[in-house]
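Reviewers asked in the last cycle whether our approach scales beyond single polypeptides. To address this, we selected a multi-component target totalling 724 residues and predicted its structure end to end. The input consisted of the following lines:
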Amino acid sequence: MRHLLSTEALDRETLTALLDDADEFAEVLTRPQPKVPALRGKTVATMFFEPSTRTRMSFEKAAKALSADTMSFSPGTSSLSKGESLKDTVLTVRAMGVDLMVVRHKATGAPWRIADWLDIPIVNGGDGAHQHPTQALLDCLTIRQHFGTLDGLRIAIVGDIRHSRVARSDIFAMSALGADVTLVGPPTLLPIDPDAWPVDVSHDLDDVLEELDVVYLLRVQTERGGGSVFPSLAEYTTRYGMTTERFRRLKPDAVVLHPGPMNRGVEIGHDVADDERALVLQQVTNGVAARMAVLFALLGGDTDA
Amino acid sequence: MHEVVIRNGSVLTSEGIIEADVSIDDGVVTGLGGEIAEGVVEVDAKTCWVGPGFVDIHTHLREPGYEWKEDIASGSAAAAAGGYTAVVAMPNTEPAIDNGPIARFVAERGSTAGLVDVFPAGTITMGRAGETMAHIDELWDAGVRLFTDDGDAVGNAAVLRLVMEYVAQLGGVISQHAVDPSLSLAGYMHEGAVSSRLGMYGIPSAADHVVIDRDLELVRATGVRYHVQHLSSAGGVERIAAAKAEGLPVTAEVTPHHLMFTEEDVASTDPDFKMMPPLRRSEDREALVHGLTTGTIDVVATDHAPHAALEKEVPFEHAPDGVIGLEWCAAVVNGEVGLDPVTFFDRMSTSPAAIAQIAGHGEPLSVGASADVVVFDPNQTWTPTTSVSKSRNAPYLGRSLTGRVRATIHDGRVTAGGG
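The resulting structure, written as structure tokens, was:
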């Protein structure tokens, strides 16, 4: 594996190896000194052309826990606002001596373009509505820790799948690991032409609710508001929200995941979000371990240590 | 001794294809068949088709206003290299070709370059803003016969209807960029399985269809000659076929890129596959190939759209629309569609000249006719690696093509190849 750009091409064996490593790094993170020297001397740059605090902090924590140095780039205060091109920006940062870049960009394919221009590993930290592969790894890690496997699990991804890079990454990773994935939402939020995807589709959450092991709630982009892709937030909650009432109807061992940030009272009920079967904070913790596994896989092979 | 002699080619004449030598002097064809004396320039046309120079009715020469992408001289050189002897320059320049003086400027710059005849198209509306009628009479008097706001459809039906009425009485052509601006607003590739997988915003085929359907109704009302630019979908081909069956004065074009590539090529996220309308499904590509073969689609037009390298060195969705094609169009048509020479010259030369009302181009060779001639080898396989155009935004570079222009002759002078 030279880069991590997408989950689409990752097979079960590769995913399993990354999750196994992530489990070990998760243990490291519980030690009194949560740090190993695996990437000492390496430099990881987080290039977030689209603003993000959480994902960037998670990557930086992962790099530091592996003893790598970190550098970060923010578009607001950078040369981009002076008119520098994307290509010149990444070439410049590369020339400072960077061993790996984590790239987030609002344009689909931007990490692929950068991978073509540079000679170092690129990790896709989220491109447009396309892919966010480390999110899929942390989601699968969380589910595997809970159930021991993804094989045979019924997972529903609920909400704005059409505009979600999280969904696109999760679908392929979860399927490759043996889960049955159902996409749930109104037609305007489901992907166009999903026939080529390894999924079932439903417009009715209540219809599939009681068969599910995992309910994966996507964030409703409240800034979109209602009236364009669905009538109103209230109607969305009525049809697709994980209300307390719906939560009670789930199987007793079913769990709820959410990539954050949550809109309590919209896609997830206030009490549901705090229930022990809502694994949202465990996902966040696992994010660091999963990203450690990725950085180690891409940079660990050629360490001198 | 003749100025130019073309030896041993298969020559398109009004009698069909004949094996003959051709002599050219003083800008006209002086001999066709029989014994022909030596030429100062001898073009070996063995295994080649010899016919009227290609005519492109959809070329972006970018001058005035965007000379870093292309100018009239460099675009003319690219056209000559691709076998063209006449091009219609699109009016989406800066300023737009919406009045007589700018149209004359473009034509004169073409004459100065001297490599192809440059015929400016005029806009439908002032500044291509879609609101008020362009200086149609001035444009007509400057020689403009084809009117288009290319780059944008005319969204306002009332505005379009009035310009259609006005142009109809002159006998001109309305050439429509048939992509609905509201359905295509957020999109930048075909809406379908590939856009869905990539998370890219799509442009449905319906964006083309709603414009064509509306316009055909206005054609029925006004009787104007109506040309649909760059068909991209099977549904578009069906609509043109139905309109022709109904007897409406309708013609249509297809680009080389829509004949060769599909939405699958966009999965590379290479901005050289970004254009408007977008590359669609393989079924659509097949319908376009079939439509060109049967004549539902009248012509191949390049939509040659130069953009500088720095403008395409960006993520896909940020790149400007369009690719260049003048230099490889004939090869793509030959390789992807495989037309016989008579049909090939009809789609590349004769019908384009007829639609754009260009005299002296596109006619089968005959003694006394203007010497605008192309020598095309349909069997040569080659892989282009660079371009004559100022720009390089060409998905053809690095690909094997079948068919190559051996020589282009404009007004009796060799403008490309030869020797």
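Chain B has a mean pLDDT of 97. We regard this as preliminary and will revisit it once experimental data from Aim 1 are available.
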